[in-house]
């Protein structure tokens, strides 16, 4: 039977992710392994909006002794562990809100990258970096398998072999071909992580951030009032991408427009040649990644291979991107 930390509260974990990276499945696997195989009491549920790739998702897990009933299904606001499946989420303060002073943060990112948002962590936080997206791509798996391996090493009472058995069982019937790939990704997650010392600058537990205010009959806004007015002319879909960018090779492009026909976000940039009322030609010049959610349909459709998939490293989108609305850049 697993031995939890000696305290009078539950051990709580929060997975911060976007749809398509497997955070919900990882939460289910962890809770199932804890309850059915480790002798713990546990509860799991996820919170998300539209069920689609790229939308924000939070997965919550509570664990406690077998004789301690869990009578709450409230979101985890003060987690002992936060696992971040997409590094862009670290730019939002809600990702690490409520983080405990001695908690553990596991985030995916390439070697050498320390996102600015990590400075908001407590000084005593345990920070772990693992390049989960690269490992998952190399093993033809998903980041959740990698991050479960890292989590098993970071949390002492979690048994790595039990967690791996639960992962295998979850896919053995639905996708048996994925079992070996997930095993390889899981094992790499247990060894290829880095512990980052002296990252945080805050003292003590971080404050809780609740997504919505507590409206009462005296404080609720008038019906029909738009509280957060804005415009879709400027956007940032970096968090919707799952680690890959479509990149244009102009030498191979024949400007046929097939990619533009399948692009759901109209993020491809075209320029007209000549000043005549009817331009001599229209040429594709690149992608405005502020509007690209990384569906990669352009790659699937391109007849010449001019559109290719590249791993999204820090600064790549800013370096290669072409402005769709150049007048806004001024």
Measured as a percent range, the helix fraction is: 10-25%
Low-confidence stretches: none
Name of the top-level CATH class of the largest domain:
Alpha Beta
**How do the SSEs run, as a string of H and E?**
EHEEEEEHHHHEEHEEHEHH
CATH architecture of the largest domain: 3-Layer(aba) Sandwich
Report the structural category.
alpha/beta
Distance between the termini: 62 Å
Report on the architecture of this protein.
This protein has helices spanning about 25-35, 130-140, 145-155, 160-170, 180-190, 260, 295-300, 315-320, 325-330; strands spanning about 10-20, 40-50, 55-65, 80-85, 105-110, 125-130, 195, 245-250, 270-275, 280-285, 305-310. It is α/β, with parallel strands linked by helices and about 325 residues long. The protein has 9 helices and 11 strands. Helices cover about 25% and strands about 20% of the residues. It folds into 2 domains: about 10-195, Pyruvate-ferredoxin oxidoreductase, PFOR, domain III (Pyruvate-ferredoxin Oxidoreductase, domain 3, 3-Layer(aba) Sandwich), CATH 3.40.920.10; about 240-330, Alpha-Beta Plaits (2-Layer Sandwich), CATH 3.30.70.3270. The strands form 3 sheets. It has a 7-stranded mixed sheet, with helices on one face. A two-stranded antiparallel ribbon has the order 8-11.
